[in-house]
Amino acid sequence: MNVLQEDKRYTYSDYLAWDDDRRWELIDGVPYAMSAPTWQHQGISGELFLQFGNFLKGKPCRVFAAPFDVRLNFDAADDTVVQPDLVVICDRSKIGGTGCAGVPDLVVEILSPSTSKHDKLLKFNTYQHAGIREYWMVDPDSKTLSVNILKDGEYVARAYGESDTVPVTVLDGCEINLTDVFTE
Q1: pLDDT tens-digit map of 129-155
Q2: Cβ(156)–Cβ(149) under 8 Å?
Q3: Is 6 inside any structural domain?
Q4: pLDDT at 115
């Protein structure tokens, strides 16, 4: 990638042209470099993917793990491309190329010290504004999960601990066992 210009807003087209080996996200035209995940992060992501994937076998919805481009405003400015740790998409017409063109049904972000503020503030507001129906923030350190359900355009949060079973609002009948998610 060439040197970033502070006053420039970038688009998905620019994002595709960046040829370095780093992973990037683009929110409202501003690029954010992503760091490599830890083994704990990958273990949590893998277990969540497994549980969602097993539930979704034979159903129309699909679960995808990062790296997976989610273009939240592809039909307008096309300047927001995120790579959540996991996404669930029930409208298969949104799936193509390297990701999702449109708003997924559920997004999961696994927090780390370097991304926690970004995920809790910037992404929270971005996902809420985009209309993502369910946004999960998994905290490996405290072994907790914050589930944010969109109601009347605002997220309503529910908190869960490491021994809880979590109902997935957007997937009728799906429950995620956090005991398995937080085992090391």
Answers
A1: 999 999 999 999 999 999 999 999 999
A2: yes
A3: no
A4: 78
Residue 125, domain extent? 12-181
User: Residue 63 in contact with residue 88, Cβ under 8 Å?
Assistant: yes
- Domain count within the chain: 1
The encoded tokens of residue 4 equal 């970033």
Average model confidence (pLDDT) across the chain: 91
Closest by CA to 11, choosing from 101, 76, 100, is 76
In a domain, 114, yes or no: yes
The reply to whether 7 falls in a domain is no
Residue 120 corresponds to which tokens in the numbers above?
């809790």
Task: Report if residue 162 sits inside a domain.
Answer: yes
Residue showing tokens 């300047």: 79
Place of tokens 């740790």: 85
Q: Is the pLDDT of residue 22 over 80?
A: no
* Per-residue pLDDT tens digits for 71-100: 998 888 888 899 999 999 999 999 998 899
Encode 78-87: b = buried (16+ Cβ within 10 Å), e = exposed.
Answer: bbbbbbbbbb
